[in-house]
Write a sequence for this structure.
């Protein structure tokens, strides 16, 4: 058996708490270390990453100054990748329910009622009532297309005012309208919502408006910022 396989077998199950985080980081550094790193440095990393169960003193010890300096001097991009990996794993554990990722077109009042009453109780439902030719409706549809991609756990829907079967309640004066539901309960009723926005508005404006009322969940985890930082460091 190779020395690499022996090292892998020696690695214990993940610990929890601050010491577990340090140990996970040490193991991650061991896995990602460049093979061109001097043998002495690799051996130190191996020792740092492998706190044995039968060595309580070494398992519970604080990082030495030498270890701290070694970690501090490592490539910062490795730390970013580790952070990104941890965030992704945490997000996967906390994610629940279906993913929608697009705007659903409702073709009748029955479909409208069904999506409100039968959707999962933890799913937020945003319905845009529009009418062709009414100012702001087409632009709102485009904004919701963008938001549906950024908030895949939110079910965004749209329905023509005529298709609702209650066109008299949704005249052009109150369109575009956004209705927000959760567990069958109406949380937001925004008639003529464009009156609260600039004449030319974008997805970020609609997002900001809904966030003012605390209606949108946190965005899905994105590694875009880290990717951009990494790209900026490439010479």
């Amino acid at each position: 058996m190779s020395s690499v396989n022996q090292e892998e077998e020696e690695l214990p199950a993940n610990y929890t708490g601050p010491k577990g985080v340090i140990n996970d980081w040490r193991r991650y550094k061991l896995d990602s270390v460049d093979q061109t790193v001097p043998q002495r440095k690799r051996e130190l990393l191996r020792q740092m990453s492998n706190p044995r169960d039968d060595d309580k003193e070494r398992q519970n010890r604080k990082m030495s100054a030498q270890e701290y300096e070694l970690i501090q001097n490592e490539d910062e991009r490795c730390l970013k990748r580790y952070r990104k990996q941890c965030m992704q794993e945490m997000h996967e554990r906390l994610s629940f329910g279906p993913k929608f990722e697009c705007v659903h077109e409702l073709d009748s009042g029955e479909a409208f009622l069904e999506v409100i009453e039968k959707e999962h109780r933890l799913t937020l439902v945003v319905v845009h009532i529009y009418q062709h030719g009414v100012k702001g409706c087409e632009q709102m549809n485009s904004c919701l297309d963008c938001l549906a991609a950024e908030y895949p756990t939110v079910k965004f829907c749209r329905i023509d005012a005529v298709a609702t079967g209650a066109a008299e309640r949704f005249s052009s004066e109150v369109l575009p309208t956004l209705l927000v539901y959760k567990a069958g309960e109406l949380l937001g009723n925004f008639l003529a919502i464009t009156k609260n926005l600039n004449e030319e508005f974008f997805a970020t404006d609609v997002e900001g408006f809904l966030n003012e009322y605390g209606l949108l969940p946190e965005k899905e985890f994105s590694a875009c910022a880290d990717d951009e930082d990494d790209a900026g460091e490439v010479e």
Q: What stands out?
A: Confidence is low (pLDDT under 50) at residues 1-15, 221-235. The two ends are 40 Å apart (CA to CA). DSSP finds ten helices and five strands in the chain.
